[in-house]
């Protein structure tokens, strides 16, 4: 019997020896330091949540990090330099909606003036979208990206702990919907027979078995009720009433009233019992009650009067909804952590965290808004102070000098700016610079060196993010000793200009300002980003897809410039092997190109076949549209692997909408959204989106003008060659 205790004691002794060794052994500058991270699963969630409430309440800032099952649902949904801010939001929205968060790191940081250091409390929550309620819709589904799962596995992610012990959750929207569904599904179930038998009160009792059963139950209930009325003061007589060999009817007390429990009856028999109660017994009530473990009990309860019956049913109904409401509240799970962060209004610190914020909104608030403007407004209401360390590292010249133009990834920044923490060594070139000490405290055990934790574990990364932020503040000459934390930290002049500025896309350097309720173009700026392409003008871009796969970028440029001139195309960008952006130097070329493409596909004559664009249109599957159509394609929840397939799928849905609206627009001419074959029609709204002010332009005139332009170009080339 003592063996388990001995094993546990031996294990604890080994842990103590190992911890002592880690605390006393010398560290090499190349040896990463380790530290304790509190692992939280559903087993210890309640106690961990109580501790976290205290830590967050006392914190000066809270850092966070997420681990997900994937990032992009299709290659073309990756972040491109040609993605406008609203398109980038749609791609982030798609990612947050389709992938799951499996680990959530939260690390409150508190300044200890007596120690002149920060005290950190890193927590690593395993979460899993388990279905806890029977009324919260179908079971959850999410995508897994193989590269992301492989990445997690390589960094020792515990998939068993996530699936078996992960903490479930309900979003605010799911909570409201669950309560609504419970109300609809169970609102009338605690009632007497009069409120439930409308559906079968007129069912004729034609089966002999049903007639015999109802008559037998009528006699039993009459016998039981009459016995109650004759011996209301004798407990022993009550307990002895109606006990058959099958124990189907047993006398009990329910809410201080005599009652019969109904056991072992089929659902059909229970309906017949309700019918009997309703027709023959005004002083009996059929009720159905539920236990905390979802067990169900059916009873027939005796009441003194109609008022007593109404009082009983009202009491049961109120009790029922209180019970169900508690069950929904208990199913909130990890959402309570998010509610805590939202209610405390602490400064939140993340690293390149725009996607993280989108996941938090989608998983714990509700469906993501359709537009980035709505998203920004809602996020700011719940989290008024957010710092993105990725943004800080890229815009502050002091930090850029220290980083020496090295990677601004989290692990790189942690190693460069926090060597004393990352390697427990002062041998770094930054050793002479100001340094903020950070101590870790887990379960009341504080240590300046740690014995667990790993990069790319959410709790570890949250800790690293907070450390990087603390060091950046110190390099910006923010003195924690003289600040009245956390109020003055948030209001610090040196931080104010960075609060609520998040990297929307690291590819193009766009930054989104969460503080701006009225989103305008000034809210999206770029900082020190080296572009590989000329300045992007979205109105000058045409999107093409479905062209021959053998067509290379140089050949594509040649096809277009032969028609529009040598300098007409400023850049070409391939989304994947089936789609590309062409940016013209003039906006009108976009609409001229679309009209010309449609004309060439409609006119199957020798001139069209020999036209320079014929190579692009070969195969008859080439589609073209403006940048706004690209945005609508990205908005779709469909995610085909190839963009050409995606455009075709979205085009089918658009065509179906057009068919429905044709009666409203009469005989108006429709233009094609996709291939432009002349048979695929679209409404004037889509036509205007494709062609803008040129959608009424005569295609023949455009062709004539373009042929003349091409002839002039060839003549100039011939003259130049002769010279």
From TrEMBL:
* Essential cofactor(s): a divalent metal cation
Write out the transmembrane intervals.
Answer: none
> What is the residue range of the signal peptide feature?
none
Query: Which Gene Ontology molecular function entries are recorded, alphabetically?
Result: nucleic acid binding
Cite the SUPFAM superfamilies for this sequence.
Ribonuclease H-like (SSF53098)
**Sequence similarity:** Belongs to the CAF1 family.
The identity of this protein, by name, is: Poly(A)-specific ribonuclease PARN isoform X2
